[in-house]
Write a structure and sequence with these properties.
The structure is a single chain. This protein is 34% helix and 23% strand. By secondary structure, the protein is α/β, with parallel strands linked by helices. It folds into 3 domains: 242 residues, Aminohydrolase, N-terminal nucleophile (Ntn) domain (Glutamine Phosphoribosylpyrophosphate, subunit 1, domain 1, 4-Layer Sandwich), CATH 3.60.20.10; 193 residues, Glucose-6-phosphate isomerase like protein, domain 1 (Rossmann fold), CATH 3.40.50; 148 residues, 3-Layer(aba) Sandwich (Rossmann fold), CATH 3.40.50. A hairpin with a 5-residue loop joins β5 and β6. α3 crosses α4, α7 packs antiparallel against α15 and α9 packs parallel to α13.
């Protein structure tokens, strides 16, 4: 959730740190701070509660000089949002500064031990134990590198750490376990960051630290070690997308930009996957013989990714002979699922760092399951710990409310479903070719929906003042009802709920009144008539309804107040098309209300702690 950036080189660190933190604002935060070692060897530190602008207003008129520094945006976990709990944190001497993402689970024990040894703490955070531990071992060894190694070996839980010391301003230390951290490799300068956008303007070369690895950075070198102190050889990856991909590109918000990127993203997902009626996922490293033997699939994810996974469940069960369970990761990891070596575990995560999904993945592997992950971020932890990976090709998604990641996850499930059907012989060759052709119509259909965005905006603005909403769907578009409601909750702060339409009579219909509007997902399908019946039930109680329907459907206009048409596509491939108007509805209502669309309150892009 929090954001880390660090710099060591020949340039002034402060502007680079502030720029990097700004690029990480999408992760969500409640305070920000930077620490820079001055040319005279003094550690200068400034941190403030609130948005990054508050910090800028303090340091830009009176800059902190120095060419090595660390910065942080904090999302409170231990200790309330406040200046004293903001990062960076220091030791007793004020010469060691550290920033940290994650949760140190044994910090109470460490804190009491350090206090008994005379250390004095200034904050309520778990993070402050880190510089004090390093201080302790520095006094014992006189070597900051060894002190850092010993300190991180005592930490239990999740961490990404950046640390500097005035006693040696020519090195920066970094470590990672369970929380993302990358190293940017430059010419005469090096960087650390939570995510690529923070450093992309300065370098495209990146080293991904794995769990249990730590690094020593100088201006001209990067050395990576394991916890025992053994040197680890690491590959330097080249980032293919450029800095402009992480900018708004003329749109008022990242979210609307990313909604409009979906036709291109979906074409990228499909590109190179099909040839002569066969499905190719060669980069996924899938064991085809194993996929023939499995008898069950577990799809596990959180939030929007879970709804994409629920779509995947419906698809796999429709087109293959496999039983599929879909589970929310935070529940999966605490129950006792029946998993063995014949169970395929599918983890879905945009960031590839979602804590509950990662923990569930590890639990499944312990039980003998093989893992395929559907992720967006190359080199992420979930991707690295999976047996096979399907990358969603969505590029950086900056808006907290996921859009293009969701539809690319859905389309990835279509491709995986066809591969499973091909391997297991549950679809004939011509059936696979037919569905492939239908999938290739999806990006064009989404493009047509977006061409109608002005009309969707006009409809949406009629519902700006409604405090409540229902989203109803059936079968393949039930997951979209859940996702549409989530979008409205996330950015418009409307009390919205998604339901299977058939459940309305089992309680929810009692909430229908003049303060609630309903979005009914009613494209052409085998459940269309049942959807019309549900719509009429709401209308009979004076409910207000927006229908999402296929072009040419005039019957629905008799029962709804407004209708948003989508291109007429076969039911099997309708989900990635149907959801786009729902994204637009949420966006236009939230923007009209003046909400911070890209960084909605209380939310973060990547949930890397429980």
């Amino acid at each position: 959730m929090c954001g880390i950036v660090g710099y060591i080189g020949d340039k002034q660190a402060q502007p680079i740190l502030l720029e990097g933190l700004q690029k990480l604002e999408y992760r969500g935060y409640d305070s920000a701070g930077i620490a820079v070692i001055s040319p005279s060897g003094k550690l200068n530190l400034v941190k403030r509660k609130g948005k990054l602008k508050t910090l800028r207003d303090v340091v830009e008129p009176d800059p902190l000089p120095g060419t090595i520094g660390i910065g942080h945006t904090r999302w409170a976990t231990h200790g309330e949002p406040s200046e004293r709990n903001s990062h960076p944190h220091t030791d007793c001497t004020g010469e060691i500064a550290a920033v940290h993402n994650g949760i140190i689970e044994n910090f109470h024990e460490l804190r009491e031990q350090l206090k008994a040894e005379g250390h004095q703490f200034k904050s309520d955070t778990d993070t402050e134990t880190i510089p004090h531990l390093v201080e302790k071992y520095l006094k014992q060894t006189g070597d900051i590198v060894e002190a850092f190694r010993r300190a991180i070996n005592e930490l239990e839980g999740a961490y990404a750490i950046g640390l500097i010391w005035t006693g040696n301003p020519d090195i920066m230390l970094a470590a990672r376990k369970g929380s993302p951290l990358i190293i940017g490799v430059g010419e005469g300068e090096n960087f650390i960051a939570s995510d690529v956008p923070a450093i992309l303007r300065h370098t495209r070369k990146v080293i991904y630290l794995d769990d249990g690895e730590w690094a020593v950075l100088t201006r001209n070198s990067v050395e990576v070690y394991d916890l025992s102190g053994k040197k680890v050889e690491k590959k330097v990856h080249e980032i293919e997308w450029d800095a402009e991909a992480a900018e708004k590109g003329g749109y008022p918000h990242f979210m609307i930009k990313e909604i409009f990127e979906q036709p291109r993203v979906l074409r990228d997902v499909l590109r190179g996957r099909f040839q002569d009626g066969k499905i190719y996922l060669s980069e996924a490293n899938l064991d085809l013989d194993y996929l023939k033997k499995i008898n069950k699939i577990m799809v596990v994810a959180c939030g929007t990714a879970f709804y994409a996974g629920l779509t995947g469940k419906y698809l796999i069960e429709k087109f293959t002979d496999l039983q599929v369970e879909a589970d929310i990761a935070s529940e999966f990891r605490y129950r006792e699922p029946k998993i063995d070596e014949n169970t395929l575990f599918i983890a879905v995560s945009q960031s590839g760092e979602t804590a509950d999904t990662l923990a569930s993945l590890r639990a499944a592997k312990e039980k003998g399951a093989k893992v395929i992950s559907i992720v967006n971020v190359v080199g992420s932890t979930i991707a690295r710990e999976s047996d096979g990976v399907i990358y969603t090709q969505a590029g950086p998604e900056i808006g907290v409310a996921s859009t293009k990641a969701y539809t690319s996850q859905q389309l990835s499930f279509y491709i995986l479903t066809l591969l499973l059907a091909q391997i297991r012989g549950t679809m004939a060759h011509d059936e696979i070719e037919h569905l492939e052709k239908l999938l290739h119509t999806v990006p064009d259909a989404v493009e047509k929906v977006l061409e109608n965005a002005d009309y969707v905006k006009k409809v949406s603005l009629k519902y700006v003042d409604y405090p409540k909403a229902f989203y109803l769907g059936r079968y393949l578009n039930y997951p979209n009802a859940l996702e549409g409601a989530l979008k409205l909750k996330e950015i418009a702060y409307t009390a919205a709920e998604g339901y299977p339409a058939g459940e309305m009579k089992h309680g929810p219909i009692a909430l229908v009144d003049d303060q609630l509007f309903t979005v009914a997902l009613s494209p052409e399908s085998k459940v269309y008539e049942k959807m019309l019946s549900n719509i009429q039930e709401i209308k009979a109680r004076n409910g207000v309804i927006i229908g999402v329907a296929s072009e040419g459907d005039t019957e629905i206009t008799r029962f709804v107040d407004d209708v948003i048409y989508i291109p007429r596509v076969p039911e099997e491939v309708s989900p990635p098309v149907v959801v786009v108007p729902l994204q637009l509805i949420a966006y236009y209502i939230a923007a009209e209300r003046g909400n911070d669309v890209d960084q909605p309150r209380n939310l973060a892009k990547s949930v890397t702690v429980e």
